[in-house]
Structures are given as structure tokens and as C-alpha cells.
Design goal:
binds phosphoenolpyruvate, alpha/beta, 24 helices, 574 residues, binds magnesium ion, eight-stranded mixed beta sheet
Length: 574
Amino acid sequence: MPRHVLSGNAAARGSALGRARVRLPHALDVEETHIAPEEVEAELKRIHDAVDTVRTEMQILRKRLHGALAKEVGEFLDLHALLLDDPELLEGIDALIRIGRYSADYALRLQRDRIAAVFEGIDDAYLRSRIDDIDQVIGRLHAALHRREADLQGVAGEILVTDNISPADLAQLQAQGVLGVITAGGSTLSHSAILARSLHLPLVVGAAAALQKVNDGDVLVIDGSSGLVVLEPNAADLRDHHARTANARREQRQLNRLRREPSRTLDGVDIKLWANAESREDVAEAHALGAAGVGLYRTEYLFINNNQIPDEETQFRVYRDVVLGMTGRMVTIRTLDVGADKADNTGLALRNEPNPALGLRGVRLSLSRPALLHTQLRAIVRASGYGPVRILVPMISGAEEMFAVRDMLRTAMREVGGEGSEMAEKIPLGAMIEVPSAALSLPTFISACDFLSIGTNDLVQYLLAADRNNDALGELYTPLHPALLRLLRDVVRTANRRGRPVAVCGEIAGDAMFTPLLLALGLSELSLHPGTLLEVRRAIRGCDLAVLRAAAPALLRARDRAGIERWLSAHAPA
Ligand code: PEP
Ligand code: MG
């Protein structure tokens, strides 16, 4: 095959050179097959069994994931589980088998085509792209009907070429050493594309001719920044690829040099960079990158990844190991925040709440199950004997909750102390500021808080009434809203006046683009996933704090997102 260039859409940057592994779509080549009346029940059973198999498969996959991936991929898996449980999907297939007398395979395909036709008529490009998720679920069901393993097998050093790819497959392929992925379909807005960007796995989507042109074993260069794929590259293509990868490496090396550098602004002010962590790997990375400590340890993953509620001893060991892993740097352990989108297998979070994001989650759930909170507090108090620990309480909406948790912490400390266990004399207790009522009534309970951490992920969703998980809302869910900026400024002011340290621990803290904005609003502590810690450190080192603080009034005068974006471009770090 001579040199050939295919073009698609750039979905995740990065350049890769490798041999192609072509995986042809299997769900689309189903022939029309009719069944006899006496076969109906057996076909219905086949499809229902397939649904059960896929559900179990996804649960197993969810358990296999850990760390940041568990959160990111977990959200996609949850969406796929929802699609799988959508009664319309299965009822439609059932009717096609029962009334149309189609085989389960063909009924599955017809139902897919019906749904696709509805999606194709949608104007909004983002919503239209959601058909990818349907296809991924249908693909898994089809594989299950034939008792095939639906997960893709990748080979280290290869570039996968396929029709479409699910986020769960993507995560697995990267772990197997696959260098890049090309899909004939798919969109740059898909969940897979979002995940590929965070995994740094080059991805080109919408390369329509890929499945016809590429054969197993062909040599490919994929450029996830331009969307171009070169088949059987010539010398110039190889040189371009080497130049691109060398640039990327140089950038990573430059970032790595910052491992031991302080997070200090141009005018000499140190900003405290904490790490958000969910796993041991995160803790080790945070330590290696010189994080000030763990600013947010999300304990819910200990519950979500388990089928039963972990007892005090289990929790104690996990918390103790995080504390030991940070070798004397402060560890902030957040009490349980299950509920809403963080469904669990332990049965703690209520099922079928009409409005789960506004329901029994975070501290509300903990206070409604005092024995549960008591156990968790005792485990954390015991871990405090091994190094400095703070406790952070999620979803505080007002004074009562904060005072109630403080009382319970006092009891737990008295008990553990009475048992003769080694423990810290004082354990700082802090509130997550992520519910607007807490932000607005902060002066009424700040006396019960030793520190504060602003959870912008939820604060944005509750302040703007925009579900953080609803893709259909597009730009409505954004931290770039004047209301959020004012609220941040007010919380920081109250905290400063009362001498309480305050950090931001939402995703905004991990995006270097927003660093100047947070510094301008007076923040001097950020807590973020270790994956972007060095980028944020670099941004801090390019900021002049005095200039940013002087520009804060202009930022707060911005009327809308466009105005805030203009301010951000004018104040990008040097
Ligand atoms: C937040 O809401 O910003 C936050 C850090 O908590 P989580 O994302 O775990 O809800
Ligand atoms: Mg939150």
C-alpha cells in the first residue's frame, strides 16, 4: 500500500507511530432473520440474559478501575448502565421478537437503527453525538448474545482502528500499552474523547475511510492534534512525527524540572498546592511532585468500590496508610460523600430519590446514620496517631450540621483517647463550601470551622441550577459566571477576616487556565489532582500576584462568560 493520508477530527492531542490493529464492527453486519413462534421465548431469554451479562461485566469493570480513572470512567459506566436499564430499549426489542418474530440479534439491530434515526434528527451536535453511547451499549449486548468478551484486546505498541470506542474500552487499552486510537465514527464531544484527553492517549475520530483503507499490520502515524492519519508514512512524515514527539517530551521535561521548585509567583508569594487523592497511587504521586499535603481525600471510593460498608478497622488501615504515605505532610480526609451521582453498592445511598442531587448526600446522609459517621470519625482519629490529619465535611448547608459534626468529633476523640490509642491532640475540622446557603451564611458557623475548602464542582451546579452531569446543558454549567466569582470573593474575604485558611478543591483548581482568576480573587491554596499539579505550578510561577489582585475589580465587573474569558486572555501567565 503506497502512502495515503486519511483525515478525521482531532479529539485528543499527541502523536503516535505504530502498526495498525483493525477491529471491524460486529453489531452492524446482522442479517434479517425470522424465528418460529415456538422460538420466541428462547430468543427473549437470550436477550434478557445478555442484558444481565453486560450489567455484570460493567460492574466488574467498575471494580477493576481505581484512582482518578474510577471516577472518570465510572461516570461513563453509570451512563451506560442507565441506558441498559432504560425500559424503552428492552421493551422495543421484546416487541420486535414477540410481534415481529425477529431473532434477538436482528431485533437488537432494528432497535438501534430506530434510536439512531431519532438522534440523527437532533439539531444539537453534542446531543447527536450521544448515539455513540447507545452504540457502545448495543455492541456490548451483541457480544454478550454470542458469549464473546466485549472488551477490546489491545497489544502494546499498536494503534487501534475501529468504528467506535467506549470510554471503558479506552481506559483498558491504554493500560495495555496501546499507543493511539482511530475511529471511523464518533465525535470530539463524546465521553471517550473527553477521557482520551485526560489519559493523554492520541485519538482521531470521524476518520470515515479508516476501516476501508487500513489493514492489520499497516504502519500508521496518528496526529491527535491535527486529526491526520498517515498510512505507510514516508521519510518526511516520520521526521514530522519525531519532531512532534520530541516537542511533547521537551514540554514534559520542562514540567518535570518543576518537581522540586516552589509554587511561587513572580513577585515572591508562595501558593499552597495540595493534592486531591482517591487512591494509593495518587498519594504516591502527590508526594513525589512535592504537594504540600493531601487537600482532599475522597473516602467514598472506599465505600463505592465495596459491596459492604467497610468497618472501623478497614477504614483505619486505609487512612493510616495515606497518612504514612505523606510522611508528615498534612492529610485532609473528607467524611463520606455518597449519594446523588455517587451511587454505591453498599446500599447506603437511597435509590430512586426524585431529586438525588438535592437529596440525602454527604453530611446529610452521615448525620442521618450517626453510627456510620461515628465509626468513620473514630477511624480517622486513630489514623491521626501516625501523622497530621484534618477532617473535611462535605455538603454542609448551614451552622447546625457543622456544630453537630463537631460534637460527634469531640465524642470520638474522647472515646479513642480513653482507649489509650495514640492520637493527635487536636484534629482541625473544616467545611466544604459547595452549597450556596453555606457560602452565604458562612459567618454563622465559621467559628466551628478550623479551615474551609471550596468545592466549585458542586457550588457551580447548585448556584446555577445546572446539573454537573447533564451534558445537554452544555455551557450552562460553567465556573465562568459572575455569580460564582462574587461568591468566591466573599467566602475568601470572610475566611481571611476570621483567620481561617481557605482552599479551592474543585476541578477549576486543576486547570492552569483558571489559575490567574483564582489568585486574583484572593485564593492562596489550591487542591488538585496530581496529574495537573506541575502545569498549575508553572502557571503560578508565571503570575504576578500584585498585578492580578489589582485587576480583580475588573474581573468582578465582567458581565458574562465572554467578559471573564477576555479578562483571562489578558491575564494569561507569562
Ligand atoms: C466539589 O464539589 O467541588 C468537590 C471537590 O467535591 P466532589 O467533586 O467530590 O463532589
Ligand atoms: Mg462536591
